[in-house]
Amino acid sequence: MDESAQFESLEETKERMMSVKKTIIVFVVALIALGQAATSRADVLSGLVGRYSLEDTSVAGKELNSVTSTWDATDANSTHMSRLVESGNSYLNFDGGQTGGYVVTPKFLSGEDSFTLAVWFRFSDTSVIKKMVCGDGAYTLSVESSGGSYAGKIRYKQLAGGSWSSDTALLSDAAPSTDAWHHVAITYDGSTALMYVDGVLQTKTLSDSGTLATAAGEYIAAYSGAHTEKWKGDLDEVRYYNRALSGTEVGSVYAAGVPEPATATLVAAGLAGILARRRRRG
Known about the structure:
With 282 residues, the chain is an alpha+beta fold. Helix content is 24%, strand content 32%. It is built from three helices and 17 strands. Strands 1, 4, 5, 7, 12, 13, 14, 15 and 17 form a nine-stranded antiparallel beta sheet that branches. Strands 2-3-6-16-8-9-10-11 form an eight-stranded antiparallel beta sheet, with no helix packed on it. The chain is globular, with a radius of gyration of 24 Å. It starts with a helix and ends with a helix.
């Protein structure tokens, strides 16, 4: 082999080594990112008594409580509910109104003096009041109509040693944007109820005392079966805790349950793209 050929061979070897080195660096960075993502998305399971991802269709007309592995929630008016999949995430869509679909759950919050309620939601129609998760005669979590007194904000009321008057209602600082996923969490420690939206504590607090009233029934997407203001839009990952989560814990639940492609999926896609480009160049 002459000197020119040897030089070209040496240069090709250097290029291959440099390419391998770059690939190793990319993988190391990706692994670090995955580790950080796993840490930031650490879930909160302590005190969790009910969790409905609204995605499993193994038992018709029922929703799976993944905490107890039982199908303890029942769909009602199910022809007005659609199970949809988006970016690998499954959720339920409800068409609202008098005959809208809803889910009957066990009475997780009735009679409790400390709890957390959390849910992901998305909607488009701002003209109607939409009941998100409620207990008939005990509590109600809703998104109000844009033209009403509460200007499209998220509103929470409860009956626990107080009354249903407006001074015992929580309101979000602003109306949530349409056509985007949002997370809301309500915590109650026996004396104060707080609202968090997308992991952020809202300004208004609710001073109350004692245990939550016993509901006639507890529901996802409705206040009661006969009520007209059923949820119109999408719901996902409904959670019930038997204790008041801290602000940090609510932030962790928010980070862990974002209904979008996980960081690991995005990183993997990026690596696949890099490797594909390398193969094309080779």
